[in-house]
Amino acid sequence: MPLMRKSNVGRIGHTLNTQTTRPNGRTRQKGAPERKSTDLGSPAVHDVRDAFDEFMTRFESFKQANDDRLREVERKMTADVVTVEKVDRLNAALDLQQKTVDGLTLQLHRPERGGLSTLTPASRDHKMAFDTYVRCGETGTLRTLEAKALSAQSDPDGGYLVPSETERLIDRVVSEASPIRAIAGVRQIGAASYKKPFATTGAASGWVGETEPRAQTDGPRISELEFPVMELYAMPAATSTLLDDNAVDLDQWIAEEVQTAFAEQEGAAFVSGDGVRKPRGFLSYDTIDNASWAWGKVGYIATGASGAFPASNPSDVLLDLVYAVKSGYRANAHFVMNRQTQSQIRKFKDADGYYLWQPSLVAGEAPRLMNVPIAEAEDMPDVGADAFSMAYGDFRRGYLIVDRLGIRVLRDPYSAKPYVLFYTTKRVGGGIQNFEAIKLLKFGTS
Fold first, then answer.
1. According to CATH, what is the number of the domain 115-199+222-338+377-446?
2. By CB atoms within 10 Å of each CB, which of 65, 142, 239, 264 scores lowest?
3. What is the pTM of this model?
4. In the predicted structure, residue 8 carries a pLDDT above the cut 70
5. Distance between CA 192 and CA 161 in Å, rounded?
6. Do residues 367 and 425 touch, judged by C-beta distance below 8 A?
7. Cα-atom radius of gyration of the chain, to the nearest Å?
């Protein structure tokens, strides 16, 4: 692939991709905070460091191989098969290593729960009562506490609320593991849906002379978006031995069992959910060529090539996608794509020989494309004919996630004897709240 023609590619983000050199010889992007662990000598920290160092080593090998491929294309108009296979192999290895780094970093950043001594008296009583319910099925104390609190979320037929500390643990880890939740707007509600009014047209106005008559103007037209919450569930199973073991923190165990399932289901729904018994994903709305964009539809830019980037100057369509979004939304924008799409973009260079895709210099932070952070969502479609494989925009203002307060657990010792099932539910909804803040890249001719 030939080098890109010179442009502003690589300078779209908040700041230039400048770097500083650390005393140990490694570089760090200016303005990027360095994450520090409270225990820098722990085995988990060493594992993250080793995995990240291996990732950076593989990235350097990939760049060298891709540079060889580009030189062969410039010299012979084609690259040797062996060189192409080497680049693809290193690219795939880079993806696997990035997945390893992400997994280790997520484990490292999981919060530790405090003991009973760190809780308020009310939280401590709730935790002890919840523990008794989970272990033995005793509901009396827990029912009394929830009735005393006058909790609107309490529903003995549908389960009991988990302790607030456990709910925060689940929500925090789900936020870190769910790429769209991490960048979208989130609102907590106490009802079955959230309604957001918005003006489809502003008040009419115009210019007149000092003494000319003023015609009566129309008022603004108000419409309403509604985001209903849907029930998301997971059902971990426990043995009687686990429940009898007093050393096991059972609400911690429940949190660890359900958080991955919740994150996976949410991730898929926020991208492509149809709104039936699940949130509505941003890819499920009607799409329209951005030149004819209208409210209620998501605008897109076409690559001009079916199922591919353009053969010449492919980075131009990335610039077109970026500038399809108004400037007010670009300051906090993200690219959204999956690993397969990233593996193609990773090969692109500008006319100065700089790679458009750059890895983070700190483990756990997002890689960047043209200095804009990438949210890696595996539920985004692969590059294919007429596929919307990339999105760009300010998702915090463009996509809204609504959470109904409270995660409930219903103990079921009967359905799968000798196992005890814990039917764990939360209620969540989502949808686009601002249609001009998000744009898509369509891999098609029109």
1. 3.30.2400.10
2. 239
3. 0.73
4. no
5. 17
6. no
7. 26
